Amino acid sequence: MKITQIVLASRPVGLPTAANFRTEEVDLTEPGTDSVLVRPLFISVDPYMRGRMNDAKSYVPPFQVGRPIDGGIVATVVESRSSLLRVGDTVVGSLPWATQSIEKADRLRKVDTGSVPAGYYLGVLGMPGLTAYVGLVEIAKPKAGETIVVSGAAGAVGIIVGQIAKMHGCRVIGIAGTDDKCHMLKEEFGYDGALNYKTSQNLKKDIAQLCPTGVDIYFDNVGGDISDAVIGNINFHARIALCGQIALYNSASPPVGPRLLPMLLTRSVMVQGFINGDYKATFPQAYRDLTAWVTDGKIKYRQTILKGFDKLPEAFLGLFTGANEGKMLVEV
Ligand SMILES: NC(=O)c1ccc[n+]([C@@H]2O[C@H](COP(=O)([O-])OP(=O)(O)OC[C@H]3O[C@@H](n4cnc5c(N)ncnc54)[C@H](OP(=O)(O)O)[C@@H]3O)[C@@H](O)[C@H]2O)c1
């Protein structure tokens, strides 16, 4: 059987382009014992994949040039040689960017798509949701009345962070890259204020205006100038959950900004970088809470879905231009 797959054609220098990906037709054999043939329904594109395009040691191995990209996928089982899964089951796993693939059944998790959209298992009920939960609840430990600033606020992780912070009684300010996203954060997701970092003339001053009592928690998804401006407003005993640095992922060499460590020292600020996978012990509780909140309507979610397998490179590159509201997905 012929399938289509997308491989890493070359390693990018700076901002990736479509030329770093290549689409190929290859043959696929039949599934063996304990394996299933799956067809992707939704494929996730995520900022961390940019790091995997480099040939560098990290917490996940790099993609190999000439080999398929892989990542979070919701798929349907079309053929089964395993007692664990039946034809028609919907599963989640880390799978290759291919129109079909053969996987060991025990590497896949069966999910129920009766009550939530299938794509949510790559978003609010998947890695981004768990990341938001761990970073906020376990690391930042929000208290009622505190002010939290979330950068990358309108994305897959950020949109959830603000809503959980509201449940904890916090005042929530989001930073995002368009007026529409800022409007959405306030009107649909309950943010108390939002700032468009692309049109702000003075980020530090604008954040000060939105946070008159200072910043108690900073959930950082982006880094760079935005973080410099937020940290310029940081309170004594504040907590910073260092989740992502997307503004720096395409830098060929580390940019030099203000030296902020003295301020963090003298204000007794706790800065905790984290990778969600290091908090697996929290996942069962996080998953239970997130599922209940989504089912009860306490947490709303947003997906930006591009249709067609061939849209994968475009969807991925769109993460770096802010083309998504909420979780960026490709529907195959
Ligand atoms: N630590 C962990 O375990 C973990 C897990 C998941 C994700 N992350 C990190 O968390 C962050 C958010 O991930 P996500 O999946 O939720 O992505 P996302 O926010 O859905 O998508 C990326 C967003 O980043 C913003 N952005 C892109 N380039 C930017 C720049 N130069 N400056 C400021 N904003 C920029 C864009 O929104 P705008 O329109 O607002 O610019 C874009 O929509 C990423 O840095 C990611 O690497 C970490």
Please give a structural write-up.
The chain is an alpha/beta fold and 332 residues long. 24% of the residues lie in helices and 28% in strands. Strand 8, helix 3 and strand 9 (171-176) form a beta-alpha-beta unit. Helix 2 packs across helix 8 (283-296) and helix 5 packs across helix 6. It is globular and about 60 Å long. Bound molecules: NADP nicotinamide-adenine-dinucleotide phosphate (NAP). NADP nicotinamide-adenine-dinucleotide phosphate (NAP) is lined by residues 46-48, 127-128, 131, 152, 154-158, 176-178, 181, 221-222, 224, 226, 243-247, 274-276, 319-320, 322, 324, 328.
Give the number of helices. Answer: 9
The portion of residues assigned to helices is: 10-25%
| Strand proportion | 25-35%
Tally the beta strands: 15
Weakly predicted, low-confidence segments: none
Largest β-sheet summary: 7 strands, mixed
Instruction: Give the class from helix and strand content and strand pairing.
Output: alpha/beta
What would you call the shape? globular
Radius of gyration, rounded? Answer: 20 Å
List the secondary-structure elements in sequence, H or E: EEEHEEEEHEHEHEHEHEHEHEHE
- Give the averaged pLDDT, no decimals: 97
| Spatial separation of the terminal alpha carbons | 18 Å
Small molecules held by this entry: NADP nicotinamide-adenine-dinucleotide phosphate
